[in-house]
Amino acid sequence: KSRAGTSSWPVFHSDLGIGSYGQLEGNDAWDTASASLIYNTTPTSTVFGIGEGTWVNTAGAKYIAYCWSEVEGYSKIGSYTGNGSTNGAFVYCGFRPRWIMIKHSSGAYSWNIHDTARNPENDGNTAKLYPDLVNDELDDSEGQLDILSNGFKLRGNWNINNVAATYIFAAFAEVPFKYANAR
Fold this sequence. Notes:
Elements: E1 10-11, E2 22-23, H1 35-38, E3 75-81, E4 90-92, E5 97-104, E6 112-115, E7 127-128, E8 138-139, E9 145-148, E10 151-154, E11 166-173
Antiparallel strand pairs: 1-2, 3-11, 4-10, 5-6, 5-11, 7-8, 9-10
């Protein structure tokens, strides 16, 4: 992201491949039209490549990049496929998540943030934030999930669990798995 400009904030996710990108500030579906302008090589544990697009590569501009990677027992970054059921998929993290961010990759849906600070009881985590919107917190019974001792289970059938849709997520642990208590 350019620190001085008003350009978009592009997002890469390894599960969706080098030929696609999303936008952190928007709810658009993942795009492939100009991905080569943003990313030109698959990231490794030490480097990431940028393209020639003005979002990431303007002469004299200063940029910032946040690069996340999985750390066993602390973070899990991946993808899952929704099934549209109130008995949705279980996503294994290897720890009890404290914070989860989810994005529908092919639909125009907002990013969703669920956490245990605002909804500590595991009665279907319905309180969520939309980081790409200016809205207040939303309590939404259709977009709920259960945060478990070793991952999370989708319970809603809305924009975090549509049938056959691919979702990307990042989850960070409450405490490492060996110290987590079951609920």
